[in-house]
Predict the structure.
Amino acid sequence: MRRLAIWLMALVMTTALGAAPSNAKDVLRVAAQYGLGYAPLFVLAKKPEFLKKYAPDAEIKMIQLAGGAAIREALLSDTADIGGLAMLPVIQAWAKGADLKIALGLSEMPVKLITWRPDLKSVKDLKPDDKVNVISIGSPQTLIMKMAAIKYFGSPTALDSHFVAMAHPDGVAALIAKRGIAAHFATPPYIRILEKEPGMHVLLSNKDFAEADFMLIAAGAGKRFVEGNPKLYAATISALKDAITWMNQKPEEAAAFLAANQAGKLTAADWLAEMKQPGVQFSPVPRGLAGLSKFMADIKMTAKAGSYDDLTWPNLHGAGGT
């Protein structure tokens, strides 16, 4: 009788605490920014058949944020499971002891600093009050400006006073209106949008520095998702790989999908032109991660450098990344 009483008490307590129903569904929370570089995550979120191939009962929630810092905070606060961001914010978080690493590569993209000002031929010509939109503090754009600062002024912080942080659409609008900023650090599709405007010209690009030879956009994930829900994590990685393969093998279909589902006025032909331009590549394997971490440590952006394996989750170990 005593054993029966204990068993009944345990059953009552389990019921009172609200045991999860057996038919509870997993919800994958996907966080992405604006622009072509994050398109694989957008495809993952908006074409559920990719995920349902591996997790039939899973649902997907899309979260649109601006800037790598916002994505990083969403991942660290467990309000997003996987998010697209530059590798820099992940390296910074890891160096501070956070359980955040690269889950998969996403895209290689050109980055260009564009201005309307005829008096600006180089970042050396920036006046003290001139502002440059670097999208978010700690973005690849920030780092490229620091590379330029070292080259032209001998200090990685020499241009920091020029930084402002706005989302790509806001920065593009401000530059076209010639309001508030002197230059905008653009990625596709914003490079081509700006270069069509009269008088716009390039001051700087990621091709100007050997140290900037790294993958621009990756997918990050926190330990709570990777180890707390390993089945959904594995399904997400497989689905995201499939989305990248689909974009590479069927770019016309991908361009038509983006035109129909992304905000803005870009047509399928526009998106296809963006995907076909030099410097654009979608790949699940991160490149240049260890070198980027070393450079950040060398200029004191982080307290330590990490190896490729330090900065990636095990599914990327041995995948051929650097």
